[in-house]
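2024-03-11 09:14:02 INFO worker-7 job=invfold-0412 stage=load source=structure_tokens
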């Protein structure tokens, strides 16, 4: 089995320090968490931005400073989210201009709990094309089975380049549930050489993550995906969640993939990993 690529999702688009005081709340705290999680085995650092006042933001200057701050403290691969629910698509698209090594690409519009997650096809395809121009590797977020067909359509149109890097996001109200049978069907439909992980939101986070690892997938954890270690037990930090996940992987004799291996496997743009 390939070594799993571990991603630490540090912040997310919803939770704040009021929900869990361990959440990083500004650029410096995000960089510090990135370093700690990298040292614990996470090769990829998935980031939703926070400004210096702790606000969620899609400010390109904050994006540039954040990518730079993470690169300064560790060689972890920066993956910026373009998925902020509260920003316009234009603001979200512009974030790739900060030239992270990776950024998310959400292929379809959907209901997202109480919110609408708008990913209009025309602009989403412009974003995919711009990512190819810049050499930013998309992390394609699949929340439902039809999103996989959209991804295959983008590949057919030349708007995605193989190898694909896919997250199956399960458990969002409005998307697919965290069902291992759905996951095994999705994995079967992937083009050869696709790298994938199962992300599960909320209560099913740990079982679905573990099933994904056991099936040969990558894995993600962090305070974007869960604020608790167990029912009623808040997670203290992103580091604690990454250490737990790395422990689960190692208990299955799966050593996390190191950054150079991830660069090679995902064909990442070397200059964007090390800083242009
Ligand atoms: N927040 C997760 C449900 C993104 O950042 O673009 C999915 C996610 C998407 O991580
Ligand atoms: Zn995210």
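2024-03-11 09:14:09 INFO worker-7 stage=emit residues=276
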């Amino acid at each position: 089995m390939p070594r799993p690529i571990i991603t630490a999702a540090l912040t997310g688009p919803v939770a704040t320090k009021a929900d869990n005081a361990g959440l990083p709340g500004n650029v410096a705290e995000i960089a510090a968490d990135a370093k700690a999680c990298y040292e614990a085995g996470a090769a990829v650092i998935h980031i939703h931005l926070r400004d210096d006042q702790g606000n969620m933001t899609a400010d390109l200057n904050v994006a540039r400073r954040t990518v730079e701050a993470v690169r300064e403290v560790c060689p972890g691969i920066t993956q910026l989210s373009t998925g902020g629910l509260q920003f316009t698509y234009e603001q979200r698209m512009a974030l790739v201009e900060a030239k992270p090594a990776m950024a998310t690409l959400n292929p379809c519009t959907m209901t997202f709990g109480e919110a609408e997650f708008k990913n209009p096809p025309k602009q989403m395809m412009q974003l995919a094309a711009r990512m190819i121009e810049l050499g930013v590797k998309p992390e394609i977020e699949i929340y439902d089975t039809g999103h996989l067909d959209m991804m295959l359509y983008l590949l057919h149109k030349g708007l995605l380049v193989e190898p694909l890097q896919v997250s199956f996001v399960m458990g969002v109200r409005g998307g697919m549930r965290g069902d291992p049978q759905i996951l095994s069907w999705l994995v079967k439909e992937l083009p050869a050489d696709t790298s994938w992980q199962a992300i599960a939101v909320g209560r099913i986070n740990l079982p679905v993550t573990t099933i994904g690892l056991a099936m040969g997938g990558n894995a993600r954890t962090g305070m974007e995906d869960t604020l608790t270690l167990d029912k009623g037990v808040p997670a203290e930090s992103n580091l604690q969640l990454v250490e737990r996940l790395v422990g689960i992987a190692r208990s299955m004799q799966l050593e996390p993939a190191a950054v150079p291996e991830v660069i090679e496997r995902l064909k990442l743009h070397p200059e964007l990993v090390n800083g242009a």
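2024-03-11 09:14:09 INFO worker-7 stage=report msg="The longest strand covers residues 137-142."
2024-03-11 09:14:10 INFO worker-7 job finished
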